Amino acid sequence: MNTDPIADFLTRIRNASSAKLKMVEIPGSNVKRAMTQILFDQGYITDFKFEDDDKQGTIKIALKYNPSTKVPAITKLQRASRPGLRKYSGANEMPRVLNGLGIAIVSTSKGVITGKQAKRENVGGEVLAYVY
Q1: Rounded to the nearest 10 degrees, what angle do helices 30-41 and 5-18 cross at?
Q2: Which residues contact 19 (CB under 8 A, 6 or more apart)?
């Protein structure tokens, strides 16, 4: 039993990216599905597929690389809030990641969204991860 499924999600993507794998398979959950959708919408991954084959299902993610240099699109995935130390942010104090070039993934009352979108909708929440 994993105590922090979000950290496991980020670590699997980070390890697959550093190993230059084309595809990574991750156990599914609603939060992971929302985070995968955000990574796809922001252009950090090529494609994804949800498979509901067992209790929780799996998420297959196709990682994105630069075609000429083979550098991964995701330079860094960092867990912000963790079970031992939660990190919350109001709408006015949303973190800027890499001076606006990266994204913060935030869990709010309106679902899991990016930090920019949370600021636009004037909602705060728990900062889950930073991606750039």
Answers
A1: 40
A2: none
Sign (positive or negative) of CA dihedral 8, 12, 13, 19: positive
Look at strands 77-79 and 111-114 and give their pairing.
Answer: unpaired
The DSSP secondary structure of 30-89, one letter per residue, reads HHHHHHHHHHHHTTSEEEEEEE--SSS-EEEEEE-B-TTT--BS---EEE-SBTTB--EE
User: What are the tokens at 102?
Assistant: 């990266």
pLDDT tens per residue, range 83-96: 999 999 999 999 99
Q: Tell me if the pTM is above 0.85.
A: yes
Domains of the chain: 5-63 (3.30.1370.30), 77-131 (3.30.1490.10)
